[in-house]
Amino acid sequence: MPRLKRGIFFVLFTISYLNIWKDGKENVPLQVILKTMKAKSWISQYGQKALLAILAIAVFCYWYFLYPYVIVVREMSQLFLWNCDYLMERMTVPGGAAQYLGECITQFFMNPTNGALTYAIFFILAQKLSSKLLLQFFPTIRNKIRFPLSLVIPILLWYVAMLPHIPLTPTMAALLVMAVGCAVMSIQAKRIRLIILCLLIPVMYWLIGPMAALLIFCSIRWIPLTATLFTTCLIGSSYVMPYPLAQIAKGIDYDWSGVREMGTYEEMECDMLIRQQQWDKILEKFPAPKSPAVRSACILAYYQSGQMGYQELMSTIVIPISMYESAPSVFCLDDLHFNVYFGSLSSAFIVSELATQLSWPAISQRAAFEAMEYIPNYNKSGRALKKLTEICIITGQYDLAEKYLSILDETTFYRRWVKKMRPLVNNPKLIEQYPFMRKSRDSYLKTKDFFFI
Question: In the chain, fewer beta carbons within 10 Å around the N or the C end?
Answer without folding.
Answer: N
